[in-house]
LacI family transcriptional regulator (Scopulibacillus darangshiensis), 680 residues
Amino acid sequence: MMKVTVNDIARVAKVSQSTVSRVLNNYPQVKQETRKKVLEAIEELKFSPDFVARSMVTNKTNTLGLIVGDISNPFFAESAKIMISRAQEMGYDVIISNTNHIDSNMDHAVQTLLSKRVDGIIISSASRGSNKVKELHDAGFAVILHNSSVEDASSNYVVLDNKKGAIMAMDHLVHLGHEKIAFISGPSKYLNVYQRYAGYQEALEKHGLPFRKTFVYEGEFSYDAVYWFVQRMLEEKERPTAIFATSDQMALAVMDAAAGKGLKIPEDLSVVGFDDMTISSNHYIGLTTISQHKEKMALLALEHLISMVEKKGESADSIHMTLEPELMIRKTTGPPKKIT
Amino acid sequence: MMKVTVNDIARVAKVSQSTVSRVLNNYPQVKQETRKKVLEAIEELKFSPDFVARSMVTNKTNTLGLIVGDISNPFFAESAKIMISRAQEMGYDVIISNTNHIDSNMDHAVQTLLSKRVDGIIISSASRGSNKVKELHDAGFAVILHNSSVEDASSNYVVLDNKKGAIMAMDHLVHLGHEKIAFISGPSKYLNVYQRYAGYQEALEKHGLPFRKTFVYEGEFSYDAVYWFVQRMLEEKERPTAIFATSDQMALAVMDAAAGKGLKIPEDLSVVGFDDMTISSNHYIGLTTISQHKEKMALLALEHLISMVEKKGESADSIHMTLEPELMIRKTTGPPKKIT
DNA sequence: ATTTAGAATGAAAACGTATTCACTATATTT
DNA sequence: AAATATAGTGAATACGTTTTCATTCTAAAT
């Protein structure tokens, strides 16, 4: 089953291959009559153009890269769905790279995406000190940071005001009467979690509450690790009455651990998350959380990337967007029970 | 910033372009000395080979396509993560196409994947009557069906014994004492949901229970649609005491609706799902469900696809694997309350 | 009838690599 | 020392398009 090429149609349509190319690309200056012949030949031989060959010469692949720490985290999966769908509508495909939150994987992913000549890259989980990101940006490559940005201010990004979000969450807990509030962090190499942590601390200070090292988990995004950490923390006599987690995924681990200890939420323990994954709004879960407006964020990142790609060269004004967080109060937070 | 090509290194290393290519591809018959020169030049100019150009001639892109109905469904996201990670380890990238469960999107996705010359395609949500799938297979293209297969028996697939799984779920409920069991289906154009439906019916019959049309939801995979359907169903006086849903995602909608109605699970209503997404095992949710062994299934599909791709031509024995389901009993099922 | 402008087409080059084929240097055998 | 085999290298071609440039055709203008 030989591949049908543009030459084959040229032959059966009795025109040159350039002409075939012209009708493929909808050039105006081809006569109706010959256009018809070509189209018929295409139909007859079931020809469809080879994108690889086309990319060779146009220097465009119509393929984007999406680098993500963990596609199985619903926040990323939901964001990815939005981006992919929109990208497809706009004529692009997307290669997803999953880094498992390992920096070297990300560098490697970038390298192979470049080798495959993707037109642009969205990075959803960039480490804040990443050199690769700066390199890409400095080289004039179309790249946009989504969800988490880097310290070097020059790169393009669409993120949330994470610190503000964290403060909103904390304010909510404090106003309910909580004074012992734990924080479940993630790897602070990510600027977004770093900023949330900063928000946590700032809020404590603002409300005159002491910072306790034992009340914070700082480590991998590991369900199990968080689960065990929380279980242990809840066994202490000086246990927190509320826990603020840096992601909904982690918040679920917290709730899981609390359930394992026989604690009722929110009576015995208040929990607030961050992300607002779809499932969090389920009545059965009803997680109080900070909404990232994931649809908007994903769409903005994607569409800006594509516009960067398409007007390569012209007005390359940089994209610096930070969205407003929103507190979603649901059923996992309430006033603390007076512990005697 | 001009692109560095193989010719550039040939020039600085003072060898021919072919020789450079040879060291790139680790050909044995190149002298240590010249190999060293080339490697140094590569290092110096920071050259990295262009995969597009390479694909042109090798006819291999080291890129796979993954077509999925909805990447935001955790079952698919988790499967995708497994496949992507393993693929990357094996030197492949993956383009994800999201069809939103629309058949024409899938046909279109296949077409563009072919145009981009992916080496193989995994289809996670194939409609059971899909012609495209058969076409692909007949054309000798490397394609494997994952999760849901097609009626035409010739295609390669790795799936679950869905009917058996459904029967296991039903048996569990019946043994607990349930007699009024509703079924939340999805679009029956998917063979896997079709088979689960068949299992539901067969189990009813086996246990001498009547089939009631009003007890089955048959429609889109829509959280909201299921939510409202269940709410309404629970208002009837002849309401079911248990609901079996064709996916965990739908089961969550069921639980959501039940919670909305103030019903306790499992006291007032038992719920069984299907898939065993990670989150289902959360103590706070504790969804009784049928495990699909998603890791095994995903890995098998991916690895078989790659082996098909790599030994193109040789022993193309077909892959027909159906895995055994497993009942995961957790906290959402229990004996029915005697309703008087 | 002749020139001229523009429309329509074809020939050829280019994109960056792998690979075949021919050739040269080196080592082995006689 | 000659003949032969083999290791190492280079020149040229192919992959399937788009695009530039030159050319032919057509119709309008003189």
Observations:
- Chain A touches chain B through 57 residues (CB under 8 Å).
- Residues 104 and 110 of chain A are 10 Å apart (CA to CA).
- Chain A has a mean pLDDT of 95.
